[in-house]
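User: Show me a protein chain along with its predicted structure.
Assistant: Here is one chain, sequence first, then structure tokens.
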Amino acid sequence: MKTASLFAFAVAGVASALLPAHAQTVVNLGTASTFAALAGTTVTSTELTVLNGNLGTEPGAAITGFGPGVVNGATYAGGAVAQQARIDVITAYNAVSGQTATTTGATAFATTTLTPGVYNAAASLSLSGIVTLDGNNQANPVFVFQMGSTLLAAGTTQVVLTNGARAENVYWQVGSSATLDSAAVFAGTIFANTSITLGSGVSVDGRLFAINGALSLIGNTVSVPVSAIPEPATTSLLVAGFFGLVIGARRFHQRRTAARAATV
């Protein structure tokens, strides 16, 4: 193999390691990305709700129940910051709803495994049991769920992420309202056109956006997903490996050329 061929092989290998491959479109949340919860009218909480991220309302300004609830972030009861976040949520909602469905006619997912794609329900969508989102070891798998009316997750629901799936790339676009029953374990960002209601003890690895209505919480935990962007050290190792491969290929070619010359 010539040095040029080895070099091309090395470039192809490193490129495939660095470039993301995903079937769906990642949605830009803009300034709303730091919000764990944002509602159009009111946010009410009873018991010890914990929000790991910002909390806001817009155009409403009523927020109650914090404390005993805890916000590990900033709270915006109306105002410019919440207003811009709501604008960005509406933009993101439209981006999610505008993606082309890869699966249509969905009505319910009960103890099943789903791969990256855009799942469309003409009306309501219900969840129960263990719903596994399998990223298929893609670099940046995306899951989009579109529903014309309501989302209902039974208390038995556990949304489980495997093989590279990440909560930050799971989107639930709800035409009206979303309800997560008591003790459900959920993942992803919910964009509800109207309201969102959580039962007691529900945990969410994601965000809750009730665009035009209220958000009701009862002793819940909602956490903005932690980004899984590769660390600089990881990128440095990939680059170092690339140049090491190129140098090794060059030295191999030089040794083989010298050996051929010695036998002539």
